[in-house]
Amino acid sequence: MRVLFVCLGNICRSPTAEVIFRRLLDERGLAHRVQVDSCGIGNWHVGKAPDPRTSQAAARRGIDLTTLRARQLVADDFGRFDYLLAMDHDNLAAMRALAPAGFDPHLGLFLDFAGLADRAVPDPYYGGERGFEEVLDLVEKGALGLLAEIETRLKARP
């Protein structure tokens, strides 16, 4: 099974989701069964490390983002992943516009799995420190819900 987290530039929200979800998979002994990646809609930050504010907020919670580098969503991603999860409605609209006709895998909002009324992870890039903490809180909730979904699907597979 393969999961792709997508935000605008791949330096704040989606890399945070990638690492948090990977950690949950490790804790549950599922890392060998689920591949996780992240990317951005735009190409502004390709090859760059996550935003320092994102890395600092994550580090305060024991999460290390230092090995990640931003990449852009490419057409092949639609054939490689079972779940393509957008951080907000604009990201999702851009992904739908790029998706090939007849695309079958799950394409939706990441926070659909969190059971929250507002299903968008806000972009903290132009805000203050609190926005980066909020992203971590929301991503942790979404990751737990997604993990429950993935575990159910994996149990159904032989």
UniProtKB/TrEMBL annotation:
All copies of domain Phosphotyrosine protein phosphatase I, residue ranges: 1-149
Top-level EC class: hydrolase
CDD domains: LMWPTP
Swiss-Prot/TrEMBL keywords: Hydrolase, Protein phosphatase
EC number(s) per entry: 3.1.3.48
Pfam families assigned to the protein according to its UniProt record, in alphabetical order: LMWPc
InterPro entries the record matches: LMW_PTPase, Ptyr_pPase, Ptyr_pPase_sf, Tyr_phospatase_low_mol_wt
One GO MF term: protein tyrosine phosphatase activity
Entry similarity comment: Belongs to the low molecular weight phosphotyrosine protein phosphatase family.
Record-given protein name: protein-tyrosine-phosphatase
Organism name: Halomonas tibetensis
